[in-house]
Amino acid sequence: MSARPAPPALDAARVRADFPLLAQSVHGKPLVYLDNAATTQKPRQVLEALDAYYRTDNANVHRGVHQLSERATAAYEGARDRIAGFINAASRRELVFVRGTTEAINLVAQSFLRPRLQPGDEILVSQLEHHSNIVPWQLVAEQTGATVRTIPMNREGELVLDALDGLLHERTKLLAVGHVSNALGTVNPLDTIIAAARRHGVPVLVDGAQALPHMAVDVRALGCDFYAFSGHKMFGPTGIGCLWARESLLEAMPPWQGGGDMIRSVRFTGSEWAELPYKFEAGTPNIAGAIGLGATVDYLVDIGMDRIAAYEHELLAYATDALRGVPELTLVGTARTKAAVLSFTLGSIHPHDIGTIVDAEGVAIRTGHHCAMPVMEFLGIPATARASLAFYNTRADIDALVRALARVREVFH
Ligand code: 7TS
Questions:
Q1: Which atom of ligand 1 is nearest to the CA of 37?
Q2: For 373-395, how does the pLDDT look when each residue is reduced to its tens digit (9 = 90+)?
Q3: Does ligand 1 have an atom closer than 6 angstroms to the CB of 370?
Q4: Burial code of 318-332, b = ≥16 C-beta within 10 A, e = fewer?
Q5: DSSP state, 243?
Q6: Amino acid 8: pLDDT
Q7: How far apart are CA 173 and CA 116, in angstroms?
Q8: Neighbours of 17 (CB within 10 A)
Q9: 244 CA → ligand 1 middle, Å
Q10: Start-to-end CA span in the chain (Å)
């Protein structure tokens, strides 16, 4: 292999200037935004794409022959092409626009899994999951008499995979796992998990909501069958996300919702479905959202996901060391491979009190169970405080968090 020169490191000050929202004060202090796992901020390139669409091209897609509809359709479908390329999908037919990760997983639960489930069948889900990768499986299990089983975790926040082969058998109809845990930041070893599922012929859904903002994702290299993600967590608009799935699986699945745009013909004697991916896009879609997400992908490609990953890796190490220096602070989630998330407790101070006091210092973090109650239950804690990073965060943001935590301790001691 020929050695290529490493690209220049990411210049956080420069990219930060792309995010107008970050340049504000809250409670009279400069905003330090460390709640990126909940949602991310949007660069002006994305805001401008949304604005331009509504100002000049707004029309419904796939319908009119008029100029505006043609432009809107071209922009919407062009976004699909670029997003499909971003995750290395084999074809644009494999990329379905949905509202977000939650909707993508519900679509797979109802359209793919429900017709395949018999009483006594099993769905295997990791214990580290966000509720959106648990509850849709519980619903479909209830509807069919199937059972949800779990891949256990350990106290470091890693999945325990020794027993995985034993959990996979002929009654297992799907394995669902997150790429990156939102509560603890664990990057799961998808290679090992997907290889095990393959040995047993079990299809795999990956919840990629917390991976796409932080690393390059190649769905074909991963070898999974479904990959779900949300635009708003990767610097794009809310209300738009994607389900990627293998074309052969999508072909075999019935539509999930019925309505306009998803049909080839409608007769009272029976209707025929549109080709992929439109079969799964009933009704007027989130046209602006898709176009905005296309602009987001252009923006991320321009910076380079590998540069983002390298920068954040270093920032996470810096933040981990910095938080370890705060007296009485316990990091929750110390997996060997992590991305972007620092969950912690501080002595016996309630996480909501931590959140409120650091907010007064201008620092935005999330506190609570992070929609991962089984993780908290396993660890025997009701909640954590969570700082979550993006590539526009800097060491100065971490230093501000550490100062704000010192303030929390002052208030409580
Ligand atoms: N999966 C993971 C891993 C998530 O982190 C989230 C949202 C979802 C699914 C749901 O995504 P949605 O866009 O469909 O809502 N996670 C969080 C969080 O960590 N804090 O607020 C939302």
A1: 19
A2: 999 999 999 999 999 999 999 99
A3: yes
A4: ebeebbeebeebebb
A5: E
A6: 83
A7: 8
A8: 14
A9: 17
A10: 58
- Ranges in the chain, pLDDT < 50: 1
Q: Using an 8 Å Cβ cutoff, are 333 and 341 in contact?
A: yes
What token pair was written down for 333?
Answer: 């989630």
Taking a C-beta distance cutoff of 8 angstroms, is the pair 262, 253 a contact? no
> 256: burial class by Cβ within 10 Å (0-12, 13-18, 19+)?
buried
Rounded Cα distance, 102 and 11, in Å: 33
Distance between CA atoms of residues 197 and 182, nearest Å = 23
Counting atoms of ligand 1 from 1, which one is nearest the CA of 100?
Answer: 14
* Residue 106: strand, helix, or coil: helix
Alpha-carbon 127 to chain mean position: 17
CB atoms within 10 A of CB 87: 21
CB atoms within 10 A of CB 359: 16
Which among 254, 290, 292 has a CA at the least distance from the CA of 96? 290
Nearest Cα residue to atom 15 of ligand 1 = 102
H/E stretch holding 247: helix 247-252
Q: Give pLDDT, residue 310.
A: 97
Give the position of tokens 């917390």.
210
d(CA 112, CA 106): 10
Residue among 371, 373, 381, 402 flagged as catalytic: 371
The tokens of 249 are what? 């699986």
Ligand 1 contact, 102 CB (< 6 A): yes
H or E element that contains 173 = strand 172-178
Q: Residue 99 CA: which ligand 1 atom is closest?
A: 14
Is the CB of 99 inside a 6 Å radius of any atom of ligand 1? Answer: no
242 is catalytic: no
Q: Is the CB of 213 under 6 A from ligand 1?
A: no
Q: Report pLDDT digits (tens) over 87-100.
A: 999 999 999 999 99
Tokens of 124: 């295997």
CA of 233 to the centre of ligand 1 (A): 8
Does ligand 1 have an atom closer than 6 angstroms to the CB of 101?
A: yes
Check if 129 has its Cβ closer than 6 Å to any atom of ligand 1.
no
